[in-house]
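The following record pairs a protein chain with its ligand, NAP.
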Amino acid sequence: MRLKNKVVLVTGAASGIGYAVTELFAKEGATVFASDIADPVTAYCEGVEALKLDVTSEEDWSSAVAAIIDKQGRLDVLINNAGIIAYEGLDELEMKEWLQMIAVDQTGVFLGMREAVRVMRRQGAGSIVNISSIWGSAAVAGAHAYHAVKGAVRNMSKNAAMTYATQGIRVNSVHPGFIDTPLTQAQAADLNDQVIDSTPMKRAGKPIEIAYGCLYLASDESSYVTGAELVIDGGYLAQ
Ligand code: NAP
């Protein structure tokens, strides 16, 4: 029960890492609001309430957080997890794809942090976890927009950590390596093989292995941790 009495909002919770975070957090005693862009999923364990939240929408954010405050009176943890990927290199990237990536993976994190911080400042406490990527601090060829947004999320997290460090709000980023989720399952097999082969542990990570990192950062066990980057990548970035 490492999250007993915590009220948590998870974005992109219908799939992959967000689903694993939702299930683990509920088992650890949290009341979890599991949100996603699609119609709310109902196949969660006990302690989970599904919400529809498109992270690119200011209105969705304010009504989702208002609904949580209405029901629970507080918001202790925000897991900014929703994300998309695009593979185009710089010279082939269309404006539409660039703007879409910024909207979901970067503006979504901005809007979520802003909404959460407004509540957490009044509470004098809160933990925000933003899901970046190994591609937020290292690079491979292609996927220009994805590298841009994940790098931005890394530094937005540090800035928010500095801004609210004395107000009881902690902000950290998590940097997964290659994780087996619907997002990577939809990628070309040779691309996946390449990344796994470049990973020292020579295997894909599991969503639950990211969820356990989020659990530490969400819980009071990490009470002195803010502005940190938690890398969970089978050793990729250590090379
Ligand atoms: P996933 O299985 O595709 O899950 C992402 C979820 O986010 C999906 O349910 C997706 O819905 C949802 N989503 C997309 N656009 C949204 C929006 N505008 N508002 C709300 N939800 C939205 O992906 P994942 O692998 O679990 O990725 C989760 C996070 O980890 C992402 O930020 C990703 O960049 C990051 N990450 C993943 C890996 C990896 O190897 N898997 C590595 C590093 C970082 P739809 O399916 O309907 O689009």
